[in-house]
């Protein structure tokens, strides 16, 4: 997984806590002039997934510092959220498991028709 980085400020204006991106179980040093950009994602669940199971994923997002967006019910079940990189990685790993309740994870974007 790669992260998109943006130049934000000079190295002199940053403290040591801003120079690290947490990876479990180790930490990776970033260059002092970069910042992680976090995007909104849509988590879509398979048919028949209960609201309680979906709520567990929402709780994971908020407990790790993410922000919930829209909730989707009806033809598709899921939600959008601003997800921290480690939480997103955890969800992607879970989505690859054969018994996963996650159908797909997409970058949130605008969809139009002609």
Automatic annotation (TrEMBL):
Alphabetical list of InterPro entries matching this protein: S8pro/Inhibitor_I9_sf
Matches recorded under SUPFAM superfamilies: Protease propeptides/inhibitors
Protein name: Inhibitor I9 domain-containing protein
Organism of derivation: Lentinula aciculospora
Biological classification of the source: Eukaryota, Fungi, Dikarya, Basidiomycota, Agaricomycotina
